Amino acid sequence: MIIVTGGAGFIGSAMVWYLNSIGRSDIVIVDALGSSEKWQNLVPLAYDDYLEKDDFIRLVREGQLHAHLGLAADGLEAIIHLGACSSTTESDARYLVHNNFAYSKDVCRFALECGARFIYASSAATYGDGANGFCDDETQLATLRPLNMYGYSKQMFDLWAQRHRLLDKIAGLKFFNVFGPNEYHKGDMRSLVIKAYEQIIATGKIGLFKSYRSDYADGEQQRDFVYVKDVVRMIGYFLEQPHINGIYNIGSSRAHSWNELAAAIFAALNRPEQIEYVDMPEHLKDKYQYYTCSDIRKLAATGYATPPCSLQDAVRDYVVNYLVPGAHLGSCHE
To answer: I need a surface site. Which of 37, 96, 291, 315 has the fewest CB within 10 A?
Structure first.
């Protein structure tokens, strides 16, 4: 059995879709559905059971999860821990510490006690403004300076795992700017691709933030944009290679500007480019990353050799096969 926490969310449901695509449905999904529409991500997927997050962590802490699921003592193969508050603008530090740090520690300990593989989501937000680079060298973890509390909550767990000498037993993955189908429910945290698609349909143009640094023109701020289908293939690689542990970047290893991303969206829709540069909200100016690019040489050195989709191909697939028909992963021919 494989447990996927956050399994109704964006990357989590894509992970379940990937597992289905390789013939796995012996999956327990853990999430907190609440009143959001992310339940729709689950509809096309095949899985064995679903648990609400609060019930899951209670069963874990009480030592009752195996009995509840009807598993033998050695019946849990892996926990892919993707469940977290992923809002970079969340200001409730107490909530983030409880949800992203303390919860992760309990799930990690449980997995190790069961002899199960533990793969967890860290974040590229831990790199802050990139002043100390984007290299996943574990000896440099303590030098990183996240720009927001979300990033720091992820950094807290990375450092905890390092202090307790667990990084040779678990795999932590730092996701860069992930986009793709099944992010529909994420509100303001959705990628520019889906936001821009809606803007183009409504107005024919895209709004991008102005630059407030002289070394970057408007729209030329750069990100490592990585397609969610590439991300879940990379996670799958760590599932298949349980001896590969530590912290790894998960990205495309290419930096593209927002202007390039906008051009790819217009091209996918066969629309003329119309970009409007808008003021950045004041609360974001001091926390805005002007450049991110993953260094994935460490991942490549383990033997992973599948190249990511080009930005243009990934955007076209997302726009044409998912956004235009309003489809979820698993609900169309893939």
So the answer is: 37
